[in-house]
Design a protein that fits this description.
This protein is of the alpha/beta class. The chain folds into 2 domains: 157 residues, Quinone Oxidoreductase, Chain A, domain 1, CATH 3.90.180; 129 residues, Rossmann fold (3-Layer(aba) Sandwich), CATH 3.40.50.720. Helices cover 29% and strands 28% of the residues. Strands 3, 5, 6, 7, 8, 15 and 16 form a 7-stranded mixed β-sheet that branches. A hairpin with an 8-residue loop joins β1 and β2. α4 crosses α5. The longest helix is centred in the middle third of the chain and has 13 residues.
Length: 314
């Protein structure tokens, strides 16, 4: 099979498209003919070696987490799936496991879902990591009708889903984004926009009930300035140092610091699918790349500045 894989950790020069043996599914696994893959920050971080303590030292290493495709083979112990089913999900690429940027991928049956009717392979592939992370972030922020919520990084993969999900819960949304993406984020459901820059929060009045940091880069001094006592700050990239400070921050300032990483329970997928099939949440795909241009997809993902998701079709 053709696959995009890293020969060693590093930049794009360390990764190639080449031939690898077809994977063989084990017990309770499914072999998927991959049709589309979306690119997430975790994918280029694995490729660079940022997470090598988790992703291991086994090479060649196929990168990519999200996938959508067609069931090619089901192994012993698998129920509810058959060859020809349209499916999607996310692979765990840590601990030496192979990813999804290939013509074929093996997935545990428990991490695979059937694609709802009316959803394309590209749309399905855009969902798991980013949309489930957004869903968990909105949950961690305790968003409900009238919640005064600030979303940092509102136009990106996680952020654009979070804005729509918060809108459906009736939150009053202030969102940060670049000048060029302000109109886009307003269309998604934000009520107020703060443009990126040194004085990004200078125009804010009062404090927020919750901050969902989809960019994961907000300094603690800014969190203290933005979140009211009794409020929540949820980050997609909580550092160990930040989490160690969670108890002192809670005691001193009354602010809960928490993570907002992907949660992928069946109930989470079911809730997400209802939101998407009802049209309440619409995945926005800014760029679609052919498989032979996957390196360009990674370049854009690392550079940033795009809206929503980047997808590679295979």
């Amino acid at each position: 099979m053709k696959a995009y894989f890293a020969l060693a950790y590093g930049g794009p020069e360390k990764s190639v498209i080449g031939d690898l043996p077809d994977p063989v599914p084990g017990k309770n696994q499914i072999l998927v003919e991959v049709k589309a893959v979306s690119i997430n920050p975790v994918d280029y971080k694995v490729r660079r070696g940022d997470l090598k303590f988790l992703s291991g030292s086994k090479f060649p290493k196929i990168v990519g987490s999200d996938f959508a495709g067609i069931v090619k083979l089901v192994s012993e112990g698998v129920a509810g799936f058959a060859p020809g089913d349209r499916v999607y999900g996310a692979l765990n690429v840590l601990m030496g496991r192979q990813g999804s940027l290939a013509e074929l991928a093996v997935a545990n049956a428990g991490s695979v879902r059937k694609i709802p009717e009316g959803i394309s392979f590209e749309q399905a592939a855009s969902l798991p990591v980013a949309a489930l992370t957004a869903l968990n972030g909105i949950r961690r922020c305790r968003v409900k009708e009238g919640t005064r919520l600030f979303i940092n990084g509102a136009s990106g993969g996680v952020g654009h889903f979070a804005v729509q999900m918060a809108r459906e819960k009736g939150a009053v949304i202030t969102a940060s984004c670049s000048e060029k993406n302000a109109g886009f984020v307003i269309q998604l459901g934000a009520h107020h926009i703060l443009r990126y820059g040194e004085n990004m929060t200078a125009g804010t009045t009062g404090k927020f009930d919750a901050v969902f940091d989809a960019h994961g880069s907000m300094p603690l001094r800014l969190v203290r300035r933005l979140v009211k006592r009794g409020g929540v700050y949820a980050s997609t990239m909580p550092s160990p140092a930040r989490m160690l400070l969670s108890l002192p921050v809670k005691l001193l300032f009354g602010i809960t610091l928490t993570s907002a990483n992907m949660r992928a329970l069946p109930s989470d997928y079911a809730e997400l699918e209802e939101l998407v099939t009802s049209g309440k949440v619409v995945p926005v795909i800014d760029h679609v790349f052919r498989f032979d241009s996957v390196a360009q997809a990674f370049e854009l993902a690392e550079k940033g500045g795009f809206r929503g998701k980047i997808v590679v079709v295979i």
